[in-house]
Specification:
288 residues, eight-stranded antiparallel sheet, seven-stranded antiparallel sheet, 4 helices
Length: 288
């Protein structure tokens, strides 16, 4: 998110593009054949790019992850993301430039999101500074976050719904991961990350509902009793998934962070996949 709160972006590198209809239609047997670097910018001149690419577009080394024309790489203590993509309808244009993430500390813990460990979350750098120089119209500084999710099963096989939020707080960042499993159990994770590399498990404030998204996806996050969270900046709004900058209050301190809600029961509906294919084109072949 930009320091002034008017702009934001998200970048997701996929091996096995879990929200790609092409990966679902393929039977999800070959993750390397459905890879992607999804880039979305929010605010003025915002764009969305998500191209499902074949295995010829994927190259990896210890420090570099490439998918076709875009890449992520470690340069010393910086993560540098080079973007060269075409945005999806209705605003079709080139999205090009560089994003540089400067972590304040790196964290190595992996946290299970299901009791059997089939899904995991690793917040590598929940406290970071970010430099953005992306066309069209995004050149700014702000605070950033870098994590990873891993899984050995389809999300909709194990989850009904989840919410995630990362909120700057007390000089560091507080993250909440709350999931409703298919069997009805609740899985709760609440962590506070310090700039010196320490991480604390914290007692989360109550789960509090707030306004649904434009597609009526249920939204809730953690907030002090009596405080109702509210959206500050609209980001991604899909029939099953919403991302936004949200204001909440944690231990008496108001904070604006990125919040996501994901309804896997909606995502599992077959009729949704052709709609997604309009926004997620398939490009099977690539030559470096």
């Amino acid at each position: 998110m930009s320091d002034d709160g008017s702009r934001a972006l998200s970048v997701i590198g996929f091996i096995g593009s879990v929200f790609s209809p092409w990966y679902r239609w393929s039977g999800r047997r070959d993750p390397q054949n459905h890879c992607c670097i999804n880039v979305a910018t929010y605010g003025p001149k915002g764009r969305f790019t998500m191209t499902d690419r074949g295995r010829s577009a994927l190259r990896q080394s210890e420090d570099v992850f490439e998918v076709g024309p875009s890449s992520m790489r470690w340069e010393g203590d910086r993560l540098v993301i080079e973007v060269n993509e075409i945005s999806s309808p209705p605003l079709i244009s080139h999205v090009r430039g560089t994003i540089t993430l400067h972590p304040e500390a790196l964290f190595g813990q992996t946290h299970n999101l299901t009791p059997d460990g089939r899904h995991g979350w690793q917040p590598f750098a929940p406290i970071a500074r970010i430099e953005v120089d992306i066309s069209p119209g995004h050149r700014w500084l702000g605070h950033g976050y870098f994590d990873a999710n891993f899984g050995t099963a389809a999300l909709e096989d194990d989850f009904n719904y989840w919410t995630w939020g990362r909120f700057p707080n007390r000089g560091g960042a507080t993250c909440f991961y709350d999931a409703e499993l298919r069997d009805g159990q609740a899985q709760e994770t609440a962590l506070h990350f310090h700039p010196d590399g320490r991480v604390d498990t914290v007692t989360p404030p109550p789960m509090t509902r707030f306004a649904r998204s434009r597609w009526a996806v249920r939204r809730e996050t953690r907030a002090d009793a009596g405080f109702v969270p509210r959206q500050e900046l609209a980001m991604l709004d899909a029939p099953f998934y919403t991302r936004a900058a949200v204001r909440t209050r944690i231990e008496g301190v108001e904070s604006v962070g990125v919040h996501e809600a994901l309804d896997l029961r909606r995502y599992a509906q077959p009729l949704l996949k052709p709609m997604l294919a309009v926004r997620v084109p398939r490009r099977k072949n690539w030559a470096f």
